[in-house]
C-alpha cells in the first residue's frame, strides 16, 4: 500500500523549501495523495532556463483482487471501492515508497531522455535504481539534473538524441523554443516572433511550424518562409 503518512510529510518538507529549491509537489485532485503534480525550474545555463516544468506523479499500490476474503493479514490494508454498484475488495501490498513513483513530464520538453510525445522519462532511479530511502524531492532533483546533463547515448527520444549528437546548435535552439512556447508563463518571446512574421503576410500555422523547425531562429525562419 502507499504510505500516505510519509507522502504527507514529504509534501510538507518539499513545499517548505520551495523558495530555495523552486521545487513543489501538490495533490492533483482534492485529498488524493496517490496522484500528484510536481514542478521544477529549468536549470540555469541550459536551454530550459526560465521555464517551469510540470511533472505528473502517480504513486503505485499493488492491488490484488480477493473474493471472498477470509483472512486479512496485519501486513495488508483492506481497501473498498464502489464501482457500478458492485463492492470490490482489494488487498494492497508494497507500493510507494518500496516501489518507485511513476513520473512523466506534463510540460512538453525537447530533451534526449524525455519523450517529446508522451513525456516519459528515461532515468535509472525511476526504475531499477530506486530505493525506499529516496524521496519525491530527490527524484525531482534528479530529473532537474537530467535537464542539465542529457545522456544521448541512452535516449528516450531517438529523434532528439540524433539531433543532439549531429547538430548540437539546432538542438539548443529547438530546446529553447520549446521552453519559451510551453514552459514559460508568458511566452511573449515566441508570440512576438509569430506576430512579426504574420504581419509580413505569412500564414500563422506555417509561421509557427517553421519557427519550431528552426529552433525559434526568427531570421532563419524568415529565410525558409521566403523560399517556400
Automatic annotation (TrEMBL):
The record's PROSITE patterns line, in alphabetical order, gives:
UBA (PS50030), UBC_1 (PS00183), UBC_2 (PS50127)
Give GO terms: molecular function aspect only.
ATP binding; transferase activity
**Domain UBA as annotated: residue spans:** 189-228
Pfam family of the protein (one): UQ_con
Q: Does the keyword Protein transport apply?
A: no
UniProt keywords (A-Z) are: ATP-binding, Nucleotide-binding, Transferase, Ubl conjugation pathway
Entry's family note: Belongs to the ubiquitin-conjugating enzyme family.
Official protein name in the record: Ubiquitin-conjugating enzyme E2 27 isoform X1
Source organism: Sesamum indicum (Oriental sesame)
Amino acid at each position: 500500500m502507499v504510505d500516505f503518512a510519509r507522502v504527507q510529510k514529504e509534501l510538507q518538507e518539499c513545499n517548505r523549501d520551495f523558495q530555495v529549491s523552486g521545487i513543489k509537489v501538490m495533490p492533483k485532485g482534492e485529498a488524493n495523495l496517490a496522484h500528484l503534480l510536481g514542478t521544477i525550474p529549468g536549470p540555469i545555463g541550459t536551454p530550459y532556463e526560465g521555464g517551469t516544468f510540470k511533472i505528473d506523479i502517480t504513486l503505485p499500490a499493488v492491488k490484488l483482487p480477493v473474493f471472498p476474503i477470509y483472512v486479512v493479514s496485519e501486513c495488508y490494508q483492506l481497501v473498498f471501492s464502489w464501482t457500478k454498484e458492485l463492492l470490490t475488495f482489494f488487498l494492497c501490498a508494497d507500493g510507494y515508497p518500496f516501489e518507485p513513483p511513476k513520473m512523466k513530464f506534463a510540460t512538453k520538453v525537447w530533451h534526449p531522455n524525455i519523450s517529446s510525445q508522451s513525456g516519459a522519462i528515461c532515468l535509472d532511479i525511476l526504475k531499477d535504481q530506486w530505493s525506499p530511502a529516496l524521496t519525491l524531492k530527490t527524484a525531482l532533483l534528479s530529473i532537474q539534473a537530467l535537464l542539465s546533463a542529457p545522456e544521448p547515448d541512452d535516449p528516450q527520444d531517438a529523434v532528439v538524441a540524433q539531433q543532439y549528437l549531429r547538430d548540437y546548435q539546432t538542438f539548443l535552439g529547438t530546446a529553447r523554443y520549446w521552453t519559451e512556447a510551453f514552459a514559460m508563463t508568458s511566452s511573449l518571446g515566441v508570440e512576438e516572433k509569430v506576430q512579426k512574421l504574420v504581419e509580413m503576410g505569412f500564414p500563422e500555422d506555417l509561421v509557427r511550424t517553421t519557427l519550431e523547425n528552426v529552433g525559434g531562429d526568427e531570421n532563419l525562419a524568415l529565410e525558409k518562409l521566403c523560399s517556400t
